[in-house]
């Protein structure tokens, strides 16, 4: 008995040891700044001089900050449009690939690739080239006799190009969907076919319910991810959130307040507001999940 | 800078290590700007923005300096304008600022008033400023302290592509008499003659220089002496109405093209790519532009509105400054390096007029004979210009003026706001930023 206990202790020690690098990283790189930003959220801090406590001023300021409200609007629009589109694309492709085509491994990798690259600077730069006034996309349109415009430099279309970029990175949820689809026993479909159920009915009555935990997981993850989008808007708009604030994501506004306007106290408060917003969305998701997510066990 | 700063707020909140180390870091860089030059190995970091041509020249000057002082190494960090300020703010905040910083008039007060820059008055042992015109030197002062030394002066101008004008058989306008209406008319001729391949004018509305001049031509100023925004809304609305007219009448490119170019580097501008016949630039950018364009470019005085105030509306802008970080570990060596760039003929002969016509008069006269045609033209333009008093230094808090300006220009060009509404909104927002700083 005692040998077993000491072995377990030893195992625990080893586990903690292995966890140490991650834990040190969490404390030093994440927890420290997170705590600092909470404190800074209640100060006036211009980056160079020490912060000065200013109570709830940053919070009252948010209420009257019209550009903040605008940035929230842009971000909500981005999240609410791009996430459903992205998940639909991911699920559609996953089902297609699940039908056991030849070269599956290749297609899976090919479709997965964009999600590895999607939030990189290089892709954002590429996006600028593709959707610029003389970019590839317009050259393509030209072939069909359509005169395009500067998609990224026109405030009516700039956000759409970023939504397209996000949808394009459907690879990560797709791979998860693919794994989920594999879990669904084939016998359900066989039974349904025997009963004469159409493909659509099979999808609605078998695939969706059995896949719902996976859909839910992807939904939560992608919403959080989309709220935090920064690189794409930053690079594509040259750090301005323009033209005329049409791509002013919340994170970008936060960054501008902090680093362009030397307004780090307010920016820190904004960071915590974003945390609260994301937490609220996640909570709503979990609450709503009770109504539509089906757990088999 | 640590004098009189209160540590109470954060420490009393028990904010812990992060804040405390930031405060400790404020306690000076550890070096003495008036001390002896070290005999040991010293590493300096030097940052600037600019075009390819500038990077090459600057690197050449660095090499000459390090050859002269073999124990000092200088590593250059250069960026284009848009990325430069993000990166500078970040490095200063992270207590990792480069030792020598190329500074602009827009940001000087913001950095100086917050204590990020060394008072160069403490570094006169190694950095001499007596060769510099006192009026120019004053532009680098904030609250009476010399936080920056101007590298040279520049003036706002129109760069005209005479190769294109000749090709379309349009005479070069007489810039001693022309008006904004003339620019519109001639610009339209170019747009028509080229069949849309070249536009007459490259739209502006993204830099503070253009607004300054427009205000001064109307007898107003952008900021008053106390640092309040003082441009009348009607004057500013006229400015945007003009830009809107250019875009709508096809004299300037479509708004989305204009916006795209405004975000790109100098080398991708309409002037540099020979796709616009007229563009507004600082006169000293002529050399970089000519190198990129490969065609004949000529400096013209800005058109006027015909009012009396327009006669003295041009001004000498300190084209940029040299500053030293207040947290530099080697302020004496940094000052020595700035002195080398500023006051030695050998550096002047390499840098020429890229950072403005040199502010040091000895260097200026020494290099005149060596100037290339474009540099010579820039110097002659400056000498012939009739200027008024320089505008007030951009107030602390207003360093973001160009971002605010750009956004409102976009609002106007895409017709989301009328020029009048944009003018009122711009003034209000800029004033709020100044008040908050």
Beta-strand residue percentage of chain B? 5-15%
Beta content of chain A comes to under 5%
In terms of per-residue confidence, which ranges of chain B show pLDDT below 50 for 5 or more consecutive residues? 1-29
The low-pLDDT segments of chain A are none
Assign an overall shape of chain B. globular
Q: What is the CATH third-level topology name of the largest domain in chain B?
A: D-Maltodextrin-Binding Protein, domain 2
How many structural domains are formed by the residues of chain B?
2
Tell me which CATH architecture of chain A applies here.
Orthogonal Bundle
Radius of gyration of chain B: 22 Å
- How far apart are the termini of chain A? 35 Å
The tally of beta strands of chain A, per DSSP, is 2
Helix content of chain A: over 70%
Strand arrangement within the widest β-sheet of chain B reads 2-1-3-11-6-12
Name of the top-level CATH class of chain A: Mainly Alpha
Instruction: Describe the main β-sheet of chain B briefly.
Output: 6 strands, mixed
Number of domains of chain A: 1
Number of strands of chain B: 12
Q: Could you explain how this protein is built, in words?
A:
The complex is a heterodimer of chains A (297) and B (437). Chain A is globular, with a radius of gyration of 24 Å. By secondary structure, chain A is mainly α. Chain A has one domain (64-292): MetI-like (MetI-like fold). The model of chain A has no long low-confidence stretch (mean pLDDT 87). The two termini of chain A are 35 Å apart. Chain A is built from 13 helices and two strands; from the N terminus they run H-E-E-H-H-H-H-H-H-H-H-H-H-H-H. Chain B has 437 residues and is of the alpha/beta class. Chain B has two domains: 29-153 and 318-380, 3-Layer(aba) Sandwich (D-Maltodextrin-Binding Protein, domain 2); 156-314 and 400-436, Periplasmic binding protein-like II (D-Maltodextrin-Binding Protein, domain 2, 3-Layer(aba) Sandwich), CATH 3.40.190. Chain B is 43% helix and 14% strand. Chain B contains 18 helices and twelve strands. A six-stranded mixed sheet of chain B has the order 2-1-3-11-6-12. In chain B, helix 10 packs across helix 18 and helix 13 (331-343) crosses helix 14 (345-351). The radius of gyration of chain B is 22 Å and the shape is globular. The model of chain B is unreliable at 1-29 (pLDDT under 50). The A-B interface holds A 32-33, 35-36, 39, 42-43, 46-53, 132-133, 149-156, 237-240, 242-245, 256, 259-264 and B 1, 5-7, 9-10, 12-13, 15-19, 22-23, 26, 82-83, 85-86, 89-90, 92-93, 110-111, 114-116, 254-260, 263, 397, 400, 403, 406-407, 410-411, 414, 416, 433, 436-437.
């Amino acid at each position: 008995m005692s040998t077993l206990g000491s072995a377990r202790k030893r195992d625990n020690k080893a586990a903690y040891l292995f966890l140490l690098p991650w834990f040190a990283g969490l404390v030093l790189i994440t927890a420290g700044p997170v705590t600092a930003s909470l404190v800074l959220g209640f100060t006036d801090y211009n980056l160079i001089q020490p912060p000065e406590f200013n109570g709830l001023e940053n919070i009252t300021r948010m209420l009257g900050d019209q550009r903040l409200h605008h940035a929230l609007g842009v971000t909500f629009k981005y999240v609410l449009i791009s996430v459903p589109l992205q998940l639909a694309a991911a699920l559609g492709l996953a089902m297609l690939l699940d039908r056991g085509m030849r070269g599956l491994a290749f297609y899976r990798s090919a479709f997965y690739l964009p999600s590895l690259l999607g939030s990189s600077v290089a892709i954002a730069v590429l996006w600028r080239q593709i959707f610029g006034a003389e970019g590839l996309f317009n050259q393509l349109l030209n072939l069909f006799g359509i005169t395009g415009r500067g998609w990224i430099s026109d405030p009516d279309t700039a956000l759409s190009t970023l939504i397209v970029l996000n949808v394009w990175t459907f690879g990560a949820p797709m791979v998860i969907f693919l794994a989920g689809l594999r879990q669904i026993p084939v016998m359900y479909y066989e039974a349904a076919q025997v009963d004469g159920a159409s493909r659509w009915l099979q999808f609605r009555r078998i695939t969706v319910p059995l896949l719902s935990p996976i859909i839910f997981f992807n939904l939560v993850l992608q919403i959080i991810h989309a709220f935090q989008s920064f690189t794409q808007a930053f690079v594509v708009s040259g750090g301005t959130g323009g033209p005329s604030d049409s791509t002013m994501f919340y994170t970008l506004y936060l960054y501008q307040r902090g680093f362009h306007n030397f307004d780090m106290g307010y920016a820190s408060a904004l960071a915590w507001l974003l945390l609260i917003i994301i937490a609220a969305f996640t909570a709503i998701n979990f609450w709503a999940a009770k109504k539509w997510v089906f757990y088999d066990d | 800078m640590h004098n009189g700063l209160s540590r109470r707020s954060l420490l009393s909140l028990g904010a812990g290590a992060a804040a405390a180390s930031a405060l400790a870091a404020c306690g000076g860089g550890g070096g003495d700007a008036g001390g002896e030059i070290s005999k040991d190995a010293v590493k300096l970091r030097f940052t600037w923005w600019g075009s390819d041509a500038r990077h090459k020249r600057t690197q050449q000057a660095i090499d000459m300096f390090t050859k002269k002082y073999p124990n000092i190494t200088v590593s250059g960090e250069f960026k284009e304008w848009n990325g430069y300020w993000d990166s500078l703010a970040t490095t200063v905040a992270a207590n990792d600022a480069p030792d020598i910083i190329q500074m602009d008039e827009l940001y000087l007060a913001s950095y100086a008033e917050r204590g990020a820059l060394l008072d160069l008055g403490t570094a006169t042992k190694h950095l001499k400023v007596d060769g510099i015109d006192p009026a120019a030197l004053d532009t680098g002062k904030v609250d009476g302290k010399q936080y920056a030394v101007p590298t040279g002066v520049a003036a706002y101008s129109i760069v005209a592509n005479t190769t294109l004008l000749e090709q379309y058989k349009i005479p070069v306008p007489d810039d001693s008499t022309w008006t904004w209406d003339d620019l519109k008319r001639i610009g339209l001729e170019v747009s028509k003659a080229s069949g849309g391949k070249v536009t007459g004018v490259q739209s502006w509305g993204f830099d503070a220089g253009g607004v300054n001049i427009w205000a001064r031509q109307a007898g107003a100023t952008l900021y008053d002496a106390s640092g309040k925004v003082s441009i009348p809304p009607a004057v500013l609305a006229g400015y945007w109405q003009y830009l809107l007219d250019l875009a709508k009448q096809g004299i300037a490119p479509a708004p989305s093209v204009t916006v795209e170019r405004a975000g790109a580097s100098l080398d991708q501008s309409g002037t540099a790519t020979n796709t616009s016949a007229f563009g507004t630039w600082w006169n000293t950018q002529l050399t970089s532009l000519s190198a990129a364009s490969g065609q004949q470019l000529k400096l013209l005085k800005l058109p006027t509105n015909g009012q009396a105030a327009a006669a003295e509306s041009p001004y000498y802008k300190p084209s940029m400054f040299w500053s030293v970080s207040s947290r530099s570990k080697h302020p004496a060596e940094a000052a020595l390096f700035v002195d080398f760039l500023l006051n030695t003929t050998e550096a002047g002969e390499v840098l020429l007029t890229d950072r403005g016509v040199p502010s040091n008069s000895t260097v200026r006269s020494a290099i005149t004979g060596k100037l290339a045609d474009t540099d010579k033209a820039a110097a002659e333009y400056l000498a012939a210009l009739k200027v008024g008093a320089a505008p007030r230094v951009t107030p602390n808090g207003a360093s973001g003026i160009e971002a605010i300006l750009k956004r409102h220009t976009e609002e106007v060009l895409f017709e989301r706001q009328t020029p009048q509404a944009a003018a009122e909104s711009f003034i209000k927002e800029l004033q709020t930023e100044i008040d908050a700083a």
